[in-house]
Amino acid sequence: MKSILSYFYKAGLLLGLLLPLGQIKAETVTDLAGRQVKLPAKVGRIVLGEGRLLYTLALLEGKQPLKRIAGWQGDLKLLDGQTYRQYQKQFPEIERIPLIGKADEESVSAEKVLAVRPDLAIFTLAGHGPDVDSKVLHDLEKAGVPVVFVDFRVSPLTHTVPSMRLLGKVLQREQEAERFISFYQQEMDKVRQALTKLPGNQRPAVLVDLRGGSMPQMMSPGKGSLGEMVAFAGGRNLAADWVPGAMGEVSVEKVLAARPPFYLLTGANAPDAASGLKMGAEIDARLARDSLLQTARRGQLGQLPAIRQGQVLGAWHHFYNTPLHVVLVQAMARWMHPDLMQQVNPQQTWLRLHQQFLAVAPSGTYWVSGH
């Protein structure tokens, strides 16, 4: 470990001595953690603190979304194998991307990161990778590797635009970032404007069941994350006053007593999964809907008015940590307020998003109604 760190430190000093003063241009940005980060003149090799940052990186990298990825964690393959295989079919080189960890912060080390010789590392404020207090960050900073933090998970509605703008800057994809930001804001504004005159008492309570059926307990978002997306779409997150953090456990008894009129279930299980919501690139609409209804009716949940009346929506779990959540917001808004959302078409948004920004074609099912 010490030898690798020493190599990077000495290499940085040598480069500074060899380059004429006029050629040394270190632009500084402020990341989502409030850190000042000096950028390299050229970014050819990127490390992703989470593999699922590919959802976001692909929006900016055009026809070659993997070209600059020098290393990443294995969470994409482990937690969303369907998307991994979707990219693998078109980009078989995905199998050759070195792993810097599995799917948790503890499995990542600075030595693994430095071994792939990155020009830049991209981490997230929260999730499965190193955070702002990690030793990995300290060691990378000491070795002279720039690290920027973005956020699409903790405060997605506040942080998505500045995170995309930051990535555009550090990846030298500013035009692409601004083009996506314009698309994102226009589509979010369609929902915002349609709900302008909606009274507060017409915003229904929504139970959000995170990866329901895949865990023994019921988990739901508190403040931020998917909870704030529900609010933006015209609902009230049932667990907002129950869960102090970003997410936490809620009791079925408390949910039954609250009798929420709407129920949102997230999941990303594979076609052959024994339980939970089957959703993603390899799932057809019928399989998704069948798994939605089966999971929603498990145990005592079948007593809820939302379940009995068919006010049930299933959604791809990973919307919660990607700018793609714009489509989920539109789908939720149409589900809760169909009369107000005549001009909002999430399916069309999904197709245009792929056509304009992504290298892979849309496939599978990412949301489905219980009706």
Short synopsis of the structure:
The chain is of the alpha/beta class and 371 residues long.
Q: Helix share of residues?
A: 25-40%
CATH class of the largest domain: Alpha Beta
User: In whole angstroms, how far apart are the ends?
Assistant: 56 Å
What is the CATH architecture annotation of the largest domain?
Answer: 3-Layer(aba) Sandwich
**Main sheet?**
5 strands, parallel
Indicate the proportion of strand residues: 5-15%
The CATH topology assignment of the largest domain is Rossmann fold
Strand order of the largest sheet: 5-4-3-6-7
Number of helices: 14
Instruction: Report Rg.
Output: 22 Å
Number of domains: 2
How would you characterize the overall build of this protein?
This protein has a 5-stranded parallel sheet with strand order 5-4-3-6-7. Residues 5-24 have low confidence and may be disordered. The relative contact order is 0.12. It has helices spanning 2-18, 54-61, 75-79, 81-90, 110-115, 135-143, 156-170, 174-194, 225-232, 252-258, 285-296, 305-308, 325-336, 346-357, and strands at residues 28-30, 36-38, 46-48, 69-73, 99-101, 120-124, 147-150, 205-209, 218-221, 236-237, 247-250, 262-267, 312-316, 367-369. The chain has 2 domains: 2-8 and 19-150, 3-Layer(aba) Sandwich (Rossmann fold); 199-369, Rossmann fold (3-Layer(aba) Sandwich). By secondary structure, the protein is α/β, with parallel strands linked by helices. α1 runs parallel beside α6 (135-143), α7 (156-170) runs antiparallel to α8 and α13 runs antiparallel to α14 (346-357).
